[in-house]
Design a protein that fits this description.
The protein has about 350 residues and is an all-alpha fold. Helix content is about 85%, strand content about 0%. It is a multi-pass membrane protein.
Length: about 350
């Protein structure tokens, strides 16, 4: 009996949050297409981001470790949570038949909640880290070691798992209690980010920038990195606020189904917006991305040229043997050795 009650409450959470009424097939096709495009962009964009950051040492700076952490959370969100979201949406639109049981629903809620909360918590940590770096630069330099950033990354996931457990666990008592808990936590993060933004803005307007010597060549680079990280946090906040406000209204009044899907699409879109910001705002990231493509192109051309050379070498060797008239058994054996050598050469090149 308890299992059935828990299952019904989890279904109630999903229905009240997203699927208030049935969707027509036309609406289902339109919304599923939009979410599929966003999911594809999220997966590809964050996969490229993780690859570029992992393969380029110049990008593995301490301040960008939180950015990499956000990319990992967004990638998992795009690979696991968004396909399940589309699967459920298409089923409710009668585009296909679905089997949405308690276990699948619990898995979707867990992955979606943990990854989404990790992303917004990371954004709050980025804002706090930049505020501390600008307000107290000497203290920041003394404690901001790489180990401290690794601990911070671990804290984002631990905090997300704890908060997600509380939110999902409270569904067993009441959907409204779960929404109230999530609202309180979300508004708290929003206030923290806003306070950090106000403090950073005052520091810049009052001329309190980084404490550095005039010969410090990293000054402009640090300032640009700060603006980039703050822009990432601002975009995350802008994509989360509509969802927070809309979910707050659902507790008190009915909300249009298309509006609910729109704010969820905007929220998922934040996971794709970050890689775009990296390309626009981080020159090293942009160079590494294009150089990687150029390297692959040069490598492909090199393979083609080497393979062609090996082929011509094989033809020339055969022609030389034919002209010399060395056609006895021993020389045929030598020819086979030559063919094997050239074949191995072509295999090694490719």
């Amino acid at each position: 009996m308890g299992y059935m009650e828990n299952s019904s409450r989890l279904f109630e959470w999903t229905n009240e949050s997203l699927f208030l009424v049935a969707y027509s097939k036309t609406e289902g096709v339109a919304w599923c297409s939009a979410f599929i495009i966003v999911a594809f962009l999220v997966i590809v964009g964050n996969a490229l981001t993780i690859t570029v950051f992992a393969s380029n040492k110049t990008l593995r700076k301490k301040s960008f470790l939180l950015v990499i952490n956000m990319a990992c959370a967004d990638f998992v969100l795009g690979v696991l949570a968004m396909p399940l979201f589309i699967y459920r949406l298409g089923g409710d639109s009668k585009l296909w038949s679905i089997e949405w049981g308690y276990s699948l629903n619990l898995f979707y809620l867990t992955v979606d909640t943990v990854c989404a909360q990790t992303s917004i918590i990371t954004a709050a940590f980025i804002a706090g880290e930049r505020f501390f770096a600008i307000g107290w630069p000497l203290k920041h330099r003394s404690i901001a070691h790489r180990r401290a950033y690794y601990i911070t990354v671990s804290l984002t996931w631990i905090s997300s798992i704890i908060i997600s457990s509380v939110i999902i666990g409270s569904l067993h008592k009441s959907v409204h209690i779960s929404i109230y808990i999530w609202m309180t936590y979300a508004f708290t993060l929003t206030i923290i980010i806003c306070v950090c933004y106000i403090g950073i803005f005052k520091s810049f307007t009052q001329g309190r920038k980084f404490m550095r010597s005039q010969n410090d060549a990293k000054g402009p680079e640090s300032k640009r990195s700060t603006k980039t990280l703050l822009l990432i946090t601002f975009v995350a906040l802008a994509c989360w606020l509509p969802l927070i406000v809309t979910n707050t209204f659902t507790v008190y009044i009915p909300v249009d189904k298309n509006l609910l899907l729109l704010v969820n699409l905007i929220n998922f879109g934040n996971s794709f917006a970050n890689p775009v910001l990296y390309c626009l705002r981080i020159p090293d990231f942009r160079k590494a991305l294009w150089s990687r493509r150029g390297y692959k192109g040069k490598r492909a051309v090199g393979r083609l040229a080497a393979t062609t050379t090996a082929f011509h070498l094989q033809v020339a060797l055969k022609h030389a043997v034919d002209v010399s008239g060395l056609l006895d058994h021993k020389e045929s054996k030598d020819m086979e050795d030559i063919d094997e050598t050239v074949t191995e050469l072509r295999t090694w090149i490719s």
